[in-house]
Amino acid sequence: MKILVVNAGSSSLKYQLFDMDTEAVLAKGLCERIGIDGIITHKCPGKDNYKASVAFPDHKAAIECVLSLLVDKEKGVIGSVDEISAVGHRFAHGGEKLNKSAILGDQELEYLESIVGLNPLHGPPAISGLKACKEVMPSVNHVGVFDTSYYSNMEEHAYIYPIPYELYEKHKIRRYGFHGTSHRYVAAKAAEVLGNKDAKIITCHLGNGSSITATVNGKAVDTSMGFTPQDGVPMGTRSGALDPTVVTFIQKAEGLTAEEADKILNKESGLLGISGISSDCRDVSIAAEEGNPRAQLALKILVHHIKKLIGSYVAEMNGVDALVFTAGIGENDAPIRAAVCREMSFLGIEIDEEVNAKAPRGSFADISKAGAKVKTLVIPTNEEYMIALDTQNLTK
Ligand code: ADP
Q1: Is position 198 annotated as part of the catalytic site?
Q2: What is the average pLDDT across 295-310?
Q3: How confident is the model at residue 129, as a pLDDT?
Q4: Could you tell me which residues come within 8 angstroms of residue 107 by beta carbon, excluding any fewer than 6 positions away?
Q5: Which protein residues touch ligand 1 with a CB less than 6 Å away?
Q6: What is the CATH number of domain 195-378?
Q7: Domain ranges of the chain
């Protein structure tokens, strides 16, 4: 069974074609600059990479180009589009109703359109991508996999904010959580490694956007991202959690509109805002090693917030069996992992610093110290595979 996974952004569309019988990725690529001009990068294992300028006036033109490349005699990997059994679509937000992966019919599409206010950045392009794919591939099922749905089992006390309850009822302001597909994937892998499906697991997805999730018995019980992906630990350019009054204070003190204040917190804060150097953790780390005090401070603040969340989740779950690092920073940045895990032996978290330092980048590694009560693992995330798997399970 071949499944196409699509992740549509406002001016981009990422795709991967999976052969689910072998779990192999047959082809993957990226359409960029949709609505501007258009570039496609297409990769198939064992073949030369292909990059070309193609006019992409809209998402439909991009997906048509992807399909023509997939069936191309030289650059392609399938004989006909009919070999694609179903399409899985990544959605950042499924609202309260789409609380598990689902085949997307008219009702679901209507609901997704009704909640774009909750998700103004990712919702509209993902819907455009879905509509384009449905138009071009009308005879197959299209499945939505939602980043928020992993958190649908969280208890009310974990997702209701302590603000007037009417605001939740009226505007659906609550903690939703994001990166759920990634946390679900790595938490399941960790449970497999532990041989314990009931395990208490803390997963740290640390990338350009970062979030931390607590999972018990395969279900998320709490997570650091909230109403939007702005909450939680400091990120590349996002502030993460802060005293809410800071926002209104900045607006008044700097004479800014709500949108301008939002831009500061979303695009100019986090590692970039503190260091003044870059949103990329590698650049900040290099500057810190060279002695730049603000770069050093940025990394200290990042580690401080990650530790605080880990501690709070251990308290919430009354223990932890595994701590997992994933995504760009989690999979590759051994010094950050070491700094997070240092002085946590009280919680049973102890790593072998040498094993951690030598852990191959972007690969699975057990970096726990021999005899440590808690397993500390590095697990590469694979959201696309999870989307393909859900799509297969719902359509086969
Ligand atoms: P996104 O959230 O955009 O998917 P990623 O998961 O790719 O982001 O993570 C990007 C972050 O990971 C950047 O801060 C980058 O510095 C960091 N990163 C990526 N590769 C490495 C590496 N080899 N060593 C250290 N940090 C890395």
Answers
A1: no
A2: 98
A3: 94
A4: none
A5: 207-209, 236, 280-282, 327-329, 332-333, 361
A6: 3.30.420.40
A7: 2-151, 195-378
